[in-house]
Amino acid sequence: MRSSRAYLFVSIVVAALCLTAGVRTTAAFNYADALDKAVLFFEAQRSGKLPPAQRVAWRADSALSDGSASNVDLVGGYYDAGDNVKFGLPMAFTVTMLSWSVLEFGADAEPAVRWGADYLLKAATATPGALWVQVADPNQDHKCWERPEDMDTPRAAYKVTPQSPGSDVAGETAAALAAASLVFRARDPAYSSRLLSAARKVFDFADRYRGSYSDSLSSVVSPFYTSYSGYYDELLWAAAWLHLASSPSPSSNGVYMSYISTNGGNLGAEQDDYTISWDDKRVATKVLLSKVFLQNRVDGLSMYKSHADHYICSLVPGASGFQSQYTPGGLLFKEGDSNMQYVTSTTFLLLAYAKDLGAAGGAVSCGGSTEVAPSALVSLAKRQVDYILGANPAGMSYMVGFGARYPRRVHHRGASMPSVRDHPARIGCDQGFQYLHSSEPDRNVLVGAVVGGPDQRDAYTDSRDNYAQAEPSTYTNAPLVGALAFFAGARANK
C-alpha cells in the first residue's frame, strides 16, 4: 500500500515541476501585501455614498438615486467589473466568497463583506415578496464609456417575483446573506441576525417559486450573466450555507440539513462537474458539505466527499482522473474570456479542501488505493497564486499595482479616465471612448485588481480593447482574498 501511495505522490510532484518549465524564478512574494491590495480593489468598485475612510481617493460618490424610480433604496453595492451596472448574481457570489475567505482563512476583509451585504439586505427587504437583482440596463450602459460619477445612462431597477422567478440569483443572495451573517455573528450579533433572517426568507422565495432569472429578465441579463448552470446548484449551495449559519439554533437546527438530504439528488448533487464560478456552484457546495462531513461525520454526506475527491483529482497532474488543462507556464486554463476567475476560485477550493482534510487527518482518494496528500493541493494552489503575482513566463504580475511589471491599460472606465478630483468637468458618454481606445496608461492605478489573464499559451495583450484579458472583476478577486490570506499566514477562524 505504502509504495503505491508514495509513487502517486512522487509522480504528482514531478508533473507539477514539469508545469513550471520555462517560468522565471522570482524572490518570495509578499503575500500580505498582495492580500492588502486585493482587498483594496473592492473600494474602487464601490457604488453609492463613499465613507470617510475611503482609501481609493480617485473615486467619488456615484449612483446616489439608484432604485428611486421604483420607490426603493438600492444605493450602494458593487460594480461587478469595468462597467457601471450592478448585477445581483455575481455581486452575491462575490459576497459569499469574501465571507468564506474570512471564515475559512481569517482574511481581514469584513468591511468589504459588509459593503456588499448591506446592499443585498436592502435588495432582499425593500419589497415584500420580491428580490431586486439588478440596477441599470447593460445594453444602454455599454453604449457609453463614462466614469461612475458622471453616469447619465438609465438606472432602471429589476426584480424577480413569484410571477417572474429567479431561483438562481435568489439562491445565491440567500447564500451570501447567510455566509455574511457568520462573519458578523460575534462582533455584531444584531446585524448578523438581520442578515440570517433575510437569508431564510430569500431562500424560501427561491425554493418556492422556481425558475431562472435568465428567463424572467432575459433582455437585461443575457448574454452578460446568463445562468447557464440553472438554479439547482444555487438552491443546494444556499441550503448548505444556511445550515452552517443556523447551527446550533434549537429552532432551526436540522431543517436545512434535512432539505439537503431530501433534495440533494434532485438538485444535481450526484453530478460530477469541474468548474466553479459566479454561475456554477456545484463543486463548491460539495467541498463545503465535505467540511461538514469531515468535522461531524454527518450521515448522508459521505457522497459529497467522494465527489469532491473526484473533482480535486481532475486538477492534480499525475493523479488518476486528471483532466484539466494548464498553460506551458503552469496556469490552470478553462476558457479564453476572463480565465483568471476560474483560477482564483479553483485555488480557493484546493486550499479549503486541503485545510479540512489536514484537520481531519484525511487525504484525497483518486481511485483504488491511491491518495493525494493535502500538501500536494497546497503546492498546486501556491503555483497558481505565484503565477498571478509574477512567477510566469512573462515575468509579469496580473495583479495591478503589485510588483514592477503589471497591466497598465485595464478595461475599466474609472481607472482609464481622469478622476473627478483631477478633472471636475463632466466627461460625456461619447467623449469617454477616447480613453477606452487610447494606448496611454491608465490615469488611475486600479490597485489590487486581477485582470482576466493570459491565454492558453501564456500570452497577454495589454490593451483596454482586449476586454477578455484586460477586464478585472469582483468575483475574480473575492476567492483570491482567501487564498492570499492562507499564504500570508492569517489565522483561520475555525
Top keywords for this entry?
3-stranded antiparallel sheet; Glycosyltransferase; mainly alpha; disordered C terminus; two-stranded antiparallel ribbon; 5 strands; 494 residues; disordered N terminus; globular
Please estimate the helix content.
40-55%
Rg value: 22 Å
At CATH level 3, the topology is Glycosyltransferase
CATH architecture: Alpha/alpha barrel
Structural class: mainly alpha
Q: Provide mean pLDDT, rounded.
A: 92
Q: Work out the number of β strands.
A: 5
Quaternary organisation = single chain
Count of discrete structural domains? 1
Describe this structure in words.
This protein has a 3-stranded antiparallel beta sheet. A two-stranded antiparallel ribbon has the order 4-5. The chain is 47% helix and 3% strand. It has one domain: Glycosyltransferase, CATH 1.50.10. Helix 14 (340-360) runs parallel beside helix 19. The model is unreliable at 1-26 and 490-494 (pLDDT under 50). The longest helix has 21 residues, at 340-360. By secondary structure, it is mainly alpha-helical.
Describe the secondary structure blueprint for this structure:
Layout (H helix, E strand, L loop, with lengths): L1 H18 L11 H14 L41 E2 H18 L4 H16 L5 E5 L2 H4 L15 E4 L6 H17 L5 H20 L4 H4 L1 H4 L10 H15 L8 H9 L18 H15 L5 H14 L24 H21 L3 E2 L5 E2 L1 H16 L23 H4 L16 H4 L30 H4 L3 H15 L6
Antiparallel strand pairs: 1-2, 2-3, 4-5
Helix pairs in contact: 2-19, 3-4, 3-6, 3-19, 4-6, 4-7, 6-7, 6-10, 7-10, 10-11, 10-12, 12-13, 12-14, 14-15, 14-19
